[in-house]
Specification:
Layout lengths: L1 E8 L5 H11 L6 E5 L7 H7 L4 E4 L10 H14 L4 E5 L6 H13 L3 E11 L3 H7 L1 H9 L3 E5 L8 H11 L4 E3 L8 H5 L5 H8 L30 H4 L1 E6 L6 H14 L3 E9 L5 E7 L2 E7 L5 E7 L3 H9 L3
Helix pairs in contact: 5-6, 11-12
Amino acid sequence: MTDIYIISGFLGAGKTTLIKTMVRSVFWDKKIVVIENDFGEAGIDAGLLRECSLTVTSLNAGCICCSLTGDFEKALERIQKDYAPDAIVVEPSGVGKLSDIARLCLKQEDKGNLHLQRTITVVDIRFFDKYLKNYGEFFKDQISYADLILLSHQEECQKEIGRVKKSILDINPQARIEADFWDSIPRPVFQYGPRNIALFKLGMEQTVSMKPVRIRTGYRKDSIKKKGILYRHFAREVFSAVTLECAEPLSEEQLRKKVLHVVKQADGEILRGKGIVKSYPHSLIFHFMPGSLEIVPANIEGNQLCFIGTGLDEQQIRTLFSEEL
């Protein structure tokens, strides 16, 4: 039976980096396939993973838990038939709910097709408080259903580690939390451990309504507040993604100016930016998080960028990026 691992985490937490680390330290003797789900139309993370000579299946233009459920199930069936891997690693969108992805995997487990081995969530210490306060429905879900939680950017926030670990345990008392550098964590920690009781309960739940509603202050005039009813939100109802193509080569300085121009001038809030653009002599990869922009050379081709956030105006962002600076 094929093992399946879910690598969850909010926008920019470090999921793709973790998978690369696990390929070297955990799966070095295994045949694995990665299912990568970018929010938006750009398969940027898939391109980065293929650098490691991994077999990657991309599911774009939405979240597995929102609009790609059928695609995800078909991808699982196709992968098992065509590749017969030892393990499948699923990297959901950063704004996806871990519970929804786990529910689909448990459904396949009940059919005897695979075994959900581990649910792992990466938590970025730098933005823990912000994401918990502003996007708690998604952020808490990713923590609540994780067997193993890994902290990222801990070297920058040493003094915050203890407090963040305590807050995580308040949300998920059963979670194993690792604050060490990932490549120093023993292999068995990634592979084995007790299953989160929340996952057991999830597997026994009957199908619930998945009707999305928009987040608003108060209640809509046409809605009725009913005691005991839980209103759930889909990522696409809260977050938006703008994907751009950049055909012209850019220098590192040009790319930096354009990205920062978009971030500073765009309406709404940009929570994540990433992309691969042409340059000389190598392509350039950029990663934006609030307060941080990293640009590095890469030996892979690409011409797409993606900005993810709330309240974004697609045409405005396209215009801002195309402006001469």
